[in-house]
Amino acid sequence: MADHFPISRIEGTAKPVCPYCGATHSERRDYAKHAGGTVGLVAGGVAGVTGAASGAELGGLVGLTAGPVGFVIGSMTGALIGCLVGASAGCVAGAKLGEVIDQRVLRNHLCLECGSTFSAE
Ligand SMILES: [Zn+2]
């Protein structure tokens, strides 16, 4: 029963075939994915700074219970977390968006045989 794993149908292992020469040697370019990740990182970081203000406020309130030093540490930790969370969330969202653009809009595959670019779903 457990002997019949469908190993031939693992997702993402199918190689895209070049529509021009039929070769299976191609590489993904992922331009939009990388660009999206970078843009998302910056945008998320900027958005995170806004969140960092409220994070600092919250952290400061929590830290206040431990006195003035706790207030400073709490504020800094809250701001840092707000910024990091925003940046990483933005990076993931940007990369996802870029991946969609790569697949739907751009010709994401470069044929290593004839040099043609094509999109494969
Ligand atoms: Zn080709």
Helix-strand layout with pairing:
Blueprint: E1 26-28, H1 31-64, H2 68-104, E2 109-111, E3 117-118
Antiparallel strand pairs: 1-2, 2-3
Helix pairs in contact: 1-2
The structure holds zinc ion.
Question: Describe it for me?
Answer:
The protein has one domain. 59% of the residues lie in helices and 7% in strands. The chain has helices at residues 31-64, 68-104; strands at 26-28, 109-111, 117-118. Strands 1-2-3 form a 3-stranded antiparallel β-sheet, with no helix packed on it. A hairpin with a 5-residue loop joins strand 2 and strand 3. The radius of gyration is 23 Å and the shape is rod-shaped. It binds zinc ion. The site of zinc ion has 8 residues, from loops.
Give a quick set of tags describing it.
mainly alpha; 2 helices; binds zinc ion; 3-stranded antiparallel β-sheet; 121 residues; single chain
